Amino acid sequence: MLVLGIETTCDETAAAVVRLQPGGAGEILSNEVMSQIAEHAAYGGVVPEIAARAHIEVIDRLVQRALEHAGVKLADLDGVAAAAGPGLIGGVIVGLTTAKALALASRKPFIAVNHLEAHALTARLTDELAFPYLLLLVSGGHTQLVAIKGVGDYLRLGSTVDDAVGEAFDKVAKMLGLPYPGGPQVEKVAAEGNATRFDLPRPMLGRAKPDFSLSGLKTAVRLEAQRIAALTPTDVADLCASFQAAVVDTIIDRSRAGLRLFRETVGAPNAMVVAGGVAANGAIRRALMRFCGESGLRLVLPPPQLCTDNGAMIAWAGLERLSLGLTDDMTFAARPRWPLDANAEAAHNGKA
Ligand code: KG4
Ligand code: ZN
User: Phi, psi (5° rounding) for residue 299?
Assistant: First the structure.
């Protein structure tokens, strides 16, 4: 079974063709990505209108390239999938409309994929992982711990009450004068810094519910930077190192709480899976390896190009849904917000 997957929810335009083999294994035949980082860099973040326009300009070419590199024609496909949200609505509409048009013209099933679900299921493509497992999703837009019990069966254990982890990295980088996107820069500079110089807060530490909070930590970095005023490169390095150490402690403590809640409510997970751009961070990866080693838990870290936004994960989620007979019709509208676990979202909003 062959599916084309299209991703346009943020600042990456991506298209990929993935094959589902009879035994259940997946094979990536092509995986094309075009990043818009250069177009947004001058603004220090993603500008929705620029993103939507940039998606329109490259999407046709990118889809063509994904088909060519996979050595397949539209007629060979068994379905066309697109991320229908959550994300920036202008961009989502571009990918969704393209996928619908291709499906309609080639008379193939259309599959609307939840972008978060695609991140969640990637470990089944890379490692043929069986359900259930614990997912830590840490990106620029999302920070969640989720029990992945089956296709479409997700239990959100915890999430951030304010900033996403990647967002906190980006904001700290910006306030310290480092270029966008900030995560990789903060990591690089932190390697030269003293992680114990600043005693920064670890919000939520010790709480039983595996939620995250990053904004207090971010503010603490700002206050320290303002106190010092003219920052030397050493100050910047020490602030980055101290911030990253606080994030590492927070992620491990929250993962421990998430694992405990998983074991209480779902049972024994087959693994812990980490996804999202922040999973590229070496200090975070090493800490998670230690944590999983101590907890007797298998750790699955998909390769960085499959942790960040890509088309293969959309195609794979499309394949998982298609093989269960789950397809969508042309009335499916873009969803700027689309929680993986609607119950958790309703409870959360009720409280707020
Ligand atoms: O998953 P992703 O590519 O895009 C979405 O947000 O969906 O994640 C991008 C985020 C950015 O906030 C970026 O700063 C962060 O991941 N990031 C990192 C690192 N590489 C990327 N954060 C910390 N350390 C890194 N090495
Ligand atoms: Zn993503």
Answer: -110, 125
